[in-house]
Amino acid sequence: MFLIDDVWDGTSWDIIQSVLLKGCSGNRIIVTTQNVMIEDSCSKHCSWLWHTVMPLSEQQSWMLFSRNVFASQDGKCPDHLRKACKEIMKKCEGLPSAITAISYLMKEHWKVQSSTIPRTEMIPELRTLSKRLFSSSYMHLTQPLRTLLLYMSMFIYECKIEKGPLICKWIAEGFYSPQTYTRMERLAELDYFHLIAWNVIIAPMPTGRPTKPAFGLCRVHSLVHQAIESTSAEECFLFTSNTLKSIDSDKARRISLQYYDPDLPSLLERLDLKFTYSLTLFDEVNRVPLEKFTMLRVLDMQGWKNVEEDDLSVICNMHLLKYLSLRNTRVSLIPSLIKQLHFLQTLDIRQTHISELPPEVCELRHLRNAYFGETYISELPPQIEKLRELERLEIAQTKISKLPSEFSGLLYLKELNLRQTKITNLP
Description:
Number of strands: 13
Shape: globular
Number of helices: 12
Strand order of the largest sheet: 5-6-7-8-9-10-11-12-13
Oligomer: single chain
């Protein structure tokens, strides 16, 4: 029997199997890998029985964790430490290697101070541990995939990320060399599935369908998120609320503000924000001086509670903007100045209070993705036929009951979502 552990790419396996399969008739070969695409390489020359190792259950994880940390207590966790330990174990998400590594740190702490277990954010070694567990996966990725993975630190931990808008952001960021938009979308979708295949991002299992992941959504593993957040800052690729204070330069190409911070105004004051190309604002984040972000390509304000109507006039002067999301904000009006966003490719106004689309929206000649669903919009402007490059239109859960006759002029439209509308006929 041969055991070949941790195979990362098909090329390496082709070299190994060229030697093994010549003189191993009747023997068994066990191969372990984190990359599900290795299956194709292994199956070229002979049949294989594949077994996908699932994460440990909560009960199994707890048994492994408590047995390692509290060996001197016969594996029994003291009642007053159970809540803190459960929180730490949750970060591991059923990965045995992560549980074993973190439980070792906890065991060392337990030897010194047996009355407490620190919270995860109070463990200075945890970030180092996260990077160590993450480094092997990261180093085996191609450089383009590393870039896309680091970009995932833009999102809050445990945030469920939609594939469609994520791909739109990757394209707007310029991660793909200029070519047809459809071609860039195909490449981005392929990269998305590569990241899932490498198990560095996770497609969650929907309720009731435990064997079929929801590939339209993804999230980042807790420990991977900590590692890519740190690595993104070290490489000056992207700064979050947690790493912005550590910035050495006066320039931050990408910024993701994820919670309220009383020091934020002073932090932004010392940065030259005209060099920032991407800005994401979450939930309770402070008011920010949007007028200073003059060179933005991507602006995502989904769920930002401090947005004001006057901000839209400022945004309409961001002439290089390619991606704009106002989703789930209290915005109720799109100004006519929206026509100044000549390069806009994606406009997301879902879950807003907007009830009318100004005709000027149809001046956005490069608009590819229009997400207008879950609003109070009752009609589309007849000038919509001017959106010659529009490929994706969502008007689900709106008050629209009829499409204008000019709608038939959208020759490149590939996806149309009319869910929960009163529309019965297409022009």
